[in-house]
Amino acid sequence: MASLAATALLLTGCGSDSSRPADAGADLYPAADPGLVAEAERDYAGFVAEEADALLAGTIRFAHAAADGQDDRARALYPQVRTHWERIETIAESFGDLDPRLDAREADLAEGEEWTGWHRLEKDLWPARAEGYTALAAAERASLADQLVSDTRELVSRIGGLDFSVTDIADGSRGLLEEVASGKVTGEEEYWSRTDLFDFQANIDGAVQGFEGVRPIVREADPELAATLDRRFAEVQDLLDEHRRGSGFVGYDELGADQVKQLADAVNALSEPLAHLSSVVSA
């Protein structure tokens, strides 16, 4: 299947929970129970399929609202629908042609490159930070909304053809944490809407789902690692919960520097034990 590797690891200053080397090989662990492996792979495939279907259904609703000029509805739907994208983001990123069309940020574009996808519509819905911005014409916005739906349909179709190994699941969990560090905790992902904490939560959701699927394998091979990951995931979630507002989160700009540092430190503390997950499950 396509590689689920994400961007290079950007987490630094991580504490260590054990003397296990970061590149510990599978030969340090007993072979995983085939039944547990099969169950983890089956359950994760089901999770991905459900999120992909929810992403497409939500994208259609969002696109209709944006194209029809229902800006308040589109703004409300935007972070909710993107939750389904962010939970499986590392899988979506494995399609190198589709991911830029769907999720490129303006800062990522080369000169003269066409900008489409979620963040192009995000800027038009939240133009306050865009000095001298000229709003999209109705036809332009409708065209972008149509392409977003079309590209999402293609993404969902491609995802349906994938198989997932336990190594893919572990790598995807780690990759989602890297996504948190590289964009969400820094406030770079949702530059216009400031809805980064919705994305942060969704990346954590996806990482937790991956870990929970392989937890029985990890418990057999390395119960200390399993306990550490449970604790560190809970610590990140506790910090995120402090920034909830109703059914969502405060805007990123409402976080103070100390609060951002707390979140970053918690992600860093989780990254070190999570880096060992692939070695354990691939034994």
Summarize this structure as a short list of keywords or feature phrases:
single chain; mainly alpha; A middle domain of Talin 1; 1% strand; two-stranded antiparallel sheet; globular; 283 residues; disordered N terminus
In summary, what is this structure?
The chain is an all-alpha fold and 283 residues long.
What does this structure look like?
With 283 residues, the chain is mostly helical. It has one domain: Up-down Bundle (A middle domain of Talin 1), CATH 1.20.1420. 63% of the residues lie in helices and 1% in strands. The chain contains eleven helices and two strands, in the order H-H-H-H-H-H-H-H-H-E-E-H-H. The longest helix is centred in the first third of the chain and has 34 residues.
